[in-house]
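Customer escalation, tier 2.

The customer says the design service returned an amino acid string that "doesn't look like it belongs to this structure." They asked us to rerun it and document both sides in this ticket. The original structure tokens are below, unchanged.
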């Protein structure tokens, strides 16, 4: 099958300009001046006039079917990847996980089984390491061989996911020795648990207390600490889901010291704030960790400025939805509310609003949503750009269209939306996965199970050792 995407404005992280994109089978074979190839040689011509032609989105932080807090995140690999596709994302890097007392291998096998035959877009896995000891660290090399090149640690969630400083240092040393990158959930979980317990003892049990007992200072402290440990271990580090200006400043400071520290934020931290959270138990919809921050303190502005300046590398989603019924588990005690929001469908649209607002150029939109996550995840240039040889994962985006986000129209398995009523300038028009149209005319037309497992390479943004 030969496809021509004609007359669009092709946008990559490097440049935006009018061009035709030539596709043969699953790959891009050429990017040429408009109208310079004979249409006769193509089986299908997609007219993209007046629209942007961008590489498919790469969301490097999702949690489909994640067992957590006695329940499971509500999007399956099927529903979650269809929603992602509808929103212009053609690759996810989801988090597989080790269960305490078991091996990384068992975790990876479990997650591969969950996704197999159900994903509508391509997918890879990071590995959450929750039981750090010598045998676990010995498995890192084996995981690398499987294309799992990133390992996630937590300074949060004592008794569940938290690793102590010794475990973090040793895991970073093990990662560095095999060329892996550490992904870090950075919040001081031990101090935060004290604040949470104190709140409940005072009778402050509403969801808003979840947000108020995870202060930005506790996120910043953890970023500072893990960056120092990474410095000692000489290990590349991604601080995931940065929510506050304080934590971001610590990550930037580490980077300015010359450390390979990379930064990720999420649309919820760019757009939502404590001020948007309804009172009473309805606030449970907005419970995630790290929490939303106060707009009045300038967090959103600092994160957007970081995207504009190039110091914020990636916008991923930390997509981890729970239905209203699941959130109900925390009525009367906010500590029991499952943490997470449904975002995977809206990332490309929400970051594009930064272009609409004039805060970032088109190229930066593509860079933070596609190219840089592909590089950090070891998927570039197969994913993350429009160039000969790359997978033909392409989104045609219509800047003249507009829509309003609503539970009535989204595809995530979720019976409400934290972005309900948000107006979006622009809209996904057509999505191709490896040359096949999977979204057109507002409908998913791809195949469940067509998504493939991606064995990933290593983080391409780590400088070569001198
Ligand atoms: Zn996460």
């Amino acid at each position: 099958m030969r496809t021509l995407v004609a007359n669009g404005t092709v946008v990559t992280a490097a440049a935006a300009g009018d061009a035709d994109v030539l596709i043969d089978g699953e790959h891009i074979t050429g990017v040429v001046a408009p109208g310079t190839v004979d249409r006769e040689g193509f089986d299908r011509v997609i007219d993209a006039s007046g629209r942007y032609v961008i590489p498919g989105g790469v969301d490097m932080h999702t949690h489909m079917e994640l067992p957590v807090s006695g329940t499971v995140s509500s999007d399956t690999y099927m529903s979650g990847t269809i929603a992602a596709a509808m929103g212009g994302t053609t690759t996810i890097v989801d988090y597989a996980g080790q269960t305490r007392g078991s091996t990384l291998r068992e975790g990876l096998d479990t997650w591969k089984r969950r996704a197999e035959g159900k994903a509508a877009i391509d997918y890879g896995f990071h590995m959450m390491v929750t039981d750090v000891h010598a045998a676990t660290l010995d498995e890192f090399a084996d995981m690398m061989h499987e294309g799992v090149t990133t390992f996630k640690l937590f300074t949060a969630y004592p008794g569940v996911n938290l690793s102590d400083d010794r475990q973090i240092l040793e895991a970073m040393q093990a990662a560095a020795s095999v060329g892996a990158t550490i992904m870090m959930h950075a919040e001081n979980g031990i101090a935060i648990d004290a604040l949470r317990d104190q709140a409940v003892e005072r009778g402050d049990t509403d969801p808003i207390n979840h947000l108020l007992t995870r202060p930005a200072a506790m996120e910043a402290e953890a970023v500072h600490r893990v960056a120092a440990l990474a410095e000692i271990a000489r290990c590349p580090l991604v601080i995931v889901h940065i929510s506050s200006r304080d934590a971001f400043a610590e990550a930037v400071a580490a980077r300015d010291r010359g450390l390979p520290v990379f930064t990720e934020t999420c649309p919820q931290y760019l757009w939502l704030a404590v001020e948007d959270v309804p009172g009473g138990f309805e606030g449970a919809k907005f419970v995630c960790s790290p929490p939303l921050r106060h707009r009045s303190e300038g967090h959103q502005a600092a994160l957007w400025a970081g995207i504009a300046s190039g110091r914020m590398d990636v916008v991923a989603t930390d997509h981890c939805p729970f239905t209203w019924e699941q959130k109900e588990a925390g009525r009367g005690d906010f500590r029991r509310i499952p943490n997470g929001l449904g975002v995977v469908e809206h990332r490309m649209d929400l970051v594009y609003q930064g272009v609409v607002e004039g805060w970032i150029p088109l190229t930066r939109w593509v860079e933070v949503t596609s190219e840089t996550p592909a590089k950090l995840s070891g998927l570039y240039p197969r994913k993350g750009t429009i160039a000969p040889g790359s997978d033909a994962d392409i989104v045609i985006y219509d800047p003249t269209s507009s829509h309003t986000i609503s539970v009535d129209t989204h595809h995530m398995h979720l019976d409400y939306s934290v972005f309900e009523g948000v107006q979006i300038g622009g809209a996904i028009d057509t999505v191709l996965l490896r040359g096949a149209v999977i979204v057109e005319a507002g409908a998913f037309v791809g195949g469940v199970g067509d998504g493939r497992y991606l064995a990933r390479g290593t983080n391409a943004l780590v400088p070569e050792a001198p």
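Tier 2 assessment: The sequence is consistent with the input. DSSP finds 14 helices and 19 strands in the chain. Residues 216-233 form the longest helix (18 residues). Sent an explanation to the customer and offered a walkthrough call.
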